Amino acid sequence: MAKIKLTKNELKKKKDALKMYQRYLPTLQLKKQQLQMEIRGVEARLAQLVAMKEALERQYSAWIAVFSEEGAARSPEGAPLLSIRSIGTSEGNIAGVMIPVFEGAEFALEPYDFYKAPLWVDRALELMKQVLLADAEYQVVERQKALLAAELRVTTQRVNLFEKVKIPETLADIKTIGIYLGDQQTAQVVRGKISKRKVEEREA
């Protein structure tokens, strides 16, 4: 621990620093609470998306075996009939953290022969699209959670630094300097009285 200067200037610096810590701490605590609340919301959305994907996959599972057997899920060139071309996101701001916001996805659909393809292909492709869409949103929401969690770690560290280190240390320093300056003032008063008494004794 660095040695503190036992001066009035140092006492003023410490008091100013304490005011600053006490002013910023509530803001940091509020940010921490907001981030925790947002992370809970993101986790709830992730759970919803998992449940949605599982429900869709249960519906889609009826078509998987048929798709595999007849090759109906692929174009004549062997490419998947349906794939995601791009995921659309915008930028959002939560408690000062820039996060991606899911806007949707653009799909690529390979051409297939409507006459030769089984009748259920259209329905199966629609289900596949919903599964891929839920999966795309899941990826974006997971990224949101990672960014918010990283900011929460930093904010929690700052709150702990102010609460458990900076404020207690500064209070202790203020007390130490205050006691020292008080002792110095008392000693000065005592010395003044002794000097006065000696002067009086000499004059008597």
Account of the 3D structure:
The chain contains two helices and two strands. It has a two-stranded antiparallel sheet. The protein has helices at 8-70, 121-203; strands at residues 82-94, 97-109. It has one domain (8-177): Helix Hairpins. Helix 1 runs antiparallel to helix 2 (121-203). It is α+β, with helices and mostly antiparallel strands and 204 residues long. The relative contact order is 0.15.
Question: What is this structure's SSE topology?
Answer:
Blueprint: H1 8-70, E1 82-94, E2 97-109, H2 121-203
Helix pairs in contact: 1-2
Query: What profile does the largest beta sheet have?
Result: 2 strands, antiparallel
> Main sheet: which strands, in order across?
1-2
Q: Can you tell me the CATH architecture?
A: Orthogonal Bundle
Question: Which stretches are low in confidence, meaning pLDDT under 50 for 5 or more residues running?
Answer: none
Count of helical regions: 2
Order of helices and strands: HEEH
User: Taking all residues together, what is the mean pLDDT?
Assistant: 84
Number of domains: 1
Radius of gyration: 35 Å
Distance between the termini: 53 Å
How much helicity do the residues have? over 70%
User: How many strand units?
Assistant: 2
